[in-house]
Amino acid sequence: MIHNGIIENYKELKQELLAKGIHFRSETDTEVVAHLVAEELKITPMPIDALKNVIKRLEGAFSLAFIVDSVPDQIFVAKQGSPLVIGLGDKETFFGSDITAFVNYTQKAVFLHDGEIAQIKAGEIRLWDKNDQEISPKITLVQWSPGSADKQGFRHYMLKEIHEQPRVVSATTQAFVNQDGLNLEALGLKSIDIKKVKTLHIVACGTAYYAGMAAKYFLEPLLGVSVNVELASEFRYRDPYLAPNGETMVMAISQSGETADTLASIKHAKEKGCQIFSICNVNYSSIHRESDGTLLMHAGPEIGVASTKAFTSQVLCAYLWALGASQILGRLNKDELNSIIQELKTLQLYLAQAPNAEEKIVELAGKLYQYPNFLFIGRGMSNVIALEGALKLKEISYIHAEGYAAGELKHGPIALVDKQIPIVAILPHDHYFEKTLSNVEEVCAREGQVYGIGDEKDQRLKDICVQVVPCPQVKNPVFQAILSTVGVQFLAYHVAVKRGTDVDQPRNLAKSVTVE
Ligand code: F6R
């Protein structure tokens, strides 16, 4: 038996089984379900019927799969709250919580809905809905091509995905920009009423939350509405004020489209009468299906647990969406939009140059990988990149790292500064440059060792930093944030490689977080 999710009433069910003299080998809720199925099979020998009876007794959000030894050529699966997708191959059938698990083998997918149960065999599927009616499976052709989930010669998926970012920018540009400007339909703007919106809440988790934080910097001026960015795990339980009748929009940002907290947040907001929009990478995912409008990213499958190309794609997509929304609201004129689109065309070229810094970063990683603590600093969107850089480093190298707004250092964290804590400063030539540089000077005065990500030709940077990691410089702050991100991604990757950790599957983490 395989189980994803949580069985909330497992303790009561366990008591019942214990009273029957069942012996348990673990403390898990999964084992309780396995015993329940085994007991039910004694009175209901058809496994599919036994499963239906057991499912009726379970509470919580879960997906289940099991094999019974009497019918070893069949697998029985059920979905309730957690994602479950079946892949139909040639004389073979797959299942997983995400299509990335089998996209290299088949592009034919059947997305199960809550309460559905299926009996699968090699190349065959039978499906029942929540009312126990047999239904014909709806087969969806997944857009991702086979091979797009391969490592393609790279040592790790994460490295491949960092290098893929110029291609993602070009695919994103093709999808959302046409001869007349922006494709408002593809941006999902035709499915919602942006003119009604007075408040926008962005809900997301982890790296996607940081993409939301970066988006706040451009969404507020472009839309002229206040934007609140919140961790989905907080939003869903805090009883936020949500004006009804579509005046509040809740935007979910999620690569997988399956993150449980993010999904629960939009379900809650929908009940309150909010407009729901999502930015997702996975088509037909639960968050996509739950939204009034969706912008589907063109990042392709992301396999490495640490999000890289999905983050830069989320920021870029949110920006294009904001530009489209601003145009509808009459806040952005054609000339302004055209000049941004021109700059966007050069982003791909600059992004393709970003890996030129990789060799220097490998060298730097060799010097720094044994330090137990790191600090990342920046201002404006670079503050968000600092947070993302710290998260990337801690999740794959297991080094403690903190991201801080450079202007906040003197309110506490500067006390950490000494020779023993490398400080990575994100220092692009933007309007925060002078301010961040003074923060760097303050840190250096306390023996801080600063490694800058910025313009390697800038003499002031060279003078003050132990080393400058070169990063192409552009005028547009959003594109600059995307370019700076590559530096922190490479740094985290190469430090982790030096430490010998499992880069693509870091301990204790999962790619889709389908439980809260
Ligand atoms: C970090 C990372 C996670 C995810 C988070 C949300 O590298 O990948 O923090 O960003 O679990 O996942 P999605 O975007 O699938 O909702």
Structure description:
The model has no long low-confidence stretch (mean pLDDT 94). The strands form 5 sheets. A 6-stranded antiparallel β-sheet has the order 1-2-3-7-8-9, with helices on one face. It is 39% helix and 21% strand. The two termini are 21 Å apart. The protein has helices spanning 10-19, 29-43, 47-57, 157-163, 165-176, 206-223, 232-235, 260-271, 286-290, 309-328, 334-353, 358-368, 381-397, 433-444, 459-464, 477-499; strands spanning 2-7, 60-66, 75-80, 85-88, 93-96, 108-111, 117-121, 124-128, 134-135, 140-141, 177-178, 181-182, 199-204, 226-231, 248-254, 275-280, 293-296, 373-378, 400-405, 422-427, 449-454, 467-470. With 516 residues, it is of the alpha/beta class. Helix 5 packs parallel to helix 10, helix 6 runs antiparallel to helix 13 (381-397) and helix 13 (381-397) packs parallel to helix 16. It has 16 helices and 22 strands. Bound molecules: fructose -6-phosphate. Fructose -6-phosphate is lined by residues 205-208, 254-256, 259, 262, 306-307, 391, 395, 513.
